[in-house]
Q: What sequence folds into this?
């Protein structure tokens, strides 16, 4: 298994542009999460999916953020009309209950770093 | 609301023992994770406690008191490679995990 992969690893864009990030979770992990992390802070929950269903979305997110997981495998996170405050590392994680824990631990990808100029 | 408190930074000496404390208040609770994050890297899983008490895993141990909303991570025989951020992360139910700001640990020779 190759782990969670994210693409692109780095993205520089101008304010007002749209950006899209892709996450490929560990195969057979049915839960997929998106977090955002800024320097010196812990990951901030954005949203999560169980299979293709988006079960929760943070109220901190504006309507400019949307995430999909159309076939219950890979996921995309789109940010429309980017703002400088969107500059952060966007982390994807996946989990499964099959590891023996009551709540499966999160396996994170390396992240997609967004810089909005 | 949700609140997680842990010290911002700690410094310890190689070979020593360090305890990183975490207090939390969450609307729901389904166990607490600790993750390690080296600078520039993704967080990696260290431990999970769902019942009160101590869980030991090699040099790392984690303790939970649900009634007090308190957990700690204990690192023994510190090594230079343990210099990292340690993230306290309660699961608030429904498979959602939230993270504290992290404690940055510096291990000095």
A:
């Amino acid at each position: 298994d190759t782990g969670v992969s994210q693409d692109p690893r780095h993205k520089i864009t101008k304010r007002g542009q749209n950006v899209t990030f892709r996450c490929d979770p560990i195969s057979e992990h049915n839960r997929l999460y998106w977090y955002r992390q800024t320097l010196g802070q812990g990951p901030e929950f954005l949203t999560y999916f169980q299979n293709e269903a988006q079960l929760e979305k943070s109220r901190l997110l504006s309507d400019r953020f949307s995430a999909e997981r159309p076939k219950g495998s890979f996921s995309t996170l789109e940010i429309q009309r980017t703002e400088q405050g969107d500059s952060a590392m966007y982390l994807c994680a996946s989990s499964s209950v099959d590891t023996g824990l009551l709540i499966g631990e999160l396996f994170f990808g390396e992240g997609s770093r967004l810089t909005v100029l | 609301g949700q609140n997680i408190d842990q010290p911002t930074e700690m410094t310890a000496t190689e070979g020593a023992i360090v305890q990183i404390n975490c207090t939390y208040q969450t609307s729901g609770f389904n166990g607490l994770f600790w993750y390690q994050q080296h600078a520039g890297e993704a967080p990696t899983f260290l431990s999970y406690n769902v019942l009160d008490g101590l869980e030991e895993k090699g040099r790392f141990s984690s303790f939970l008191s649900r009634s007090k909303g308190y957990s700690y991570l204990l690192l023994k025989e510190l090594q230079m490679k343990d210099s990292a951020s340690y993230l306290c992360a309660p699961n608030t139910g429904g498979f959602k995990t939230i993270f504290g700001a992290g404690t940055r640990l510096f291990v000095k020779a």
Notes: Chain B has a mean pLDDT of 95.
